[in-house]
Write a structure and sequence with these properties.
- The structure is a single chain.
- The protein is α+β, with helices and mostly antiparallel strands.
- Helices cover about 30% and strands about 20% of the residues.
- The protein contains five helices and 14 strands.
- It has helices spanning about 1-30, 70, 80-95, 170-185, 200-205; strands at about 40-45, 45-50, 55, 60, 65, 75-80, 100-105, 125-130, 135, 140, 160-165, 165-170, 190-195, 230-240.
Length: about 240
């Protein structure tokens, strides 16, 4: 009997390991098997669709996915130009700010369309990026994304952007927004709207990098929407005229 139980335990452990590994393999396979077909976006973020969406790599210089399971299920597709701008911006800020990486949240389906539970993310031009953090010692930290906190979306920060010993790094967030604006423009993209908790807007704009945002600060929504957006920033891009939609 002990041998039988031992074999059963080994098999269960192997099965559990395979179950944990499968989303990682599938998430990376989506990127490996992706083609280079040009993306086409149609409609609005709240009522749109996408052709030839491209997956974000689940990890890379300056970024990591919020969930390998979410990535494996195809919930991190965007317009190809958005993908390229994001990856370059993440790498640029990470290079300038050692230790900093950004946690990418949900973006959309490969073909766009309704994306529950989000009200937007339908045309491949929207992305959620979790707020960058600093710990009590001032070191870069990530938002924790676990099933029991709704993969990060269920976290609550106070009016000053604090949660326990962690605090939102508004300066690094502003640096990312500037980098995204810079990397988007050569791709005929512009940042159309940024949604963040309204009480955080003055804190963002008062940071050193926030004071340098210039006209981009006009894209930041100043009112409350249906979700507080204290744990992540929602960024919507728009395509310039003449770009396939």
């Amino acid at each position: 009997m002990p041998r039988v139980l031992h074999r059963l335990a080994r098999r269960l452990a192997l099965a559990a390991g395979l179950l944990l590994l499968a989303p990682v393999v599938v998430a990376h396979a989506r990127v490996w098997l992706d083609d280079d077909a040009p993306s086409e976006s149609a409609g609005s973020p709240a009522q749109g669709r996408l052709r030839h969406g491209h997956p974000l790599p689940p990890s890379g210089p300056g970024h990591v996915t919020y969930s390998y399971l979410g990535a494996s299920l195809g919930r991190q597709y965007v317009h190809g130009a958005v993908r390229d701008a994001l990856l370059e911006a993440f790498a640029a800020v990470s290079a300038a700010r050692p230790g900093r990486r950004f946690v990418v949240g949900e973006t959309g389906h490969r073909q766009g369309g309704a994306f529950w539970p989000h009200r937007t993310h339908q045309n491949g031009l929207s992305v959620d990026i979790f707020v960058p953090l600093r710990d009590a010692a001032g070191r870069p930290a990530d938002v924790a994304t676990y099933p029991w906190n709704q993969l990060g979306y269920g976290l609550e920060f106070d009016a000053q952007g604090r949660r326990g010993d962690l605090a939102i790094d508004f300066d690094d967030l502003a640096r990312l927004l500037s980098a995204l604006d810079e990397k988007a423009r050569p791709r005929k993209l512009r940042i159309q709207r940024i949604i963040l908790a309204p009480e955080y807007v003055p804190l963002l704009l008062a940071s050193p990098a926030g004071r340098a945002l210039g006209p981009l600060s006009g894209a930041i929504l100043r009112r409350q929407v249906w979700w507080r957006h204290d744990e992540h920033a929602h960024i919507e891009f728009a395509l310039e005229a003449g770009v396939p939609r």
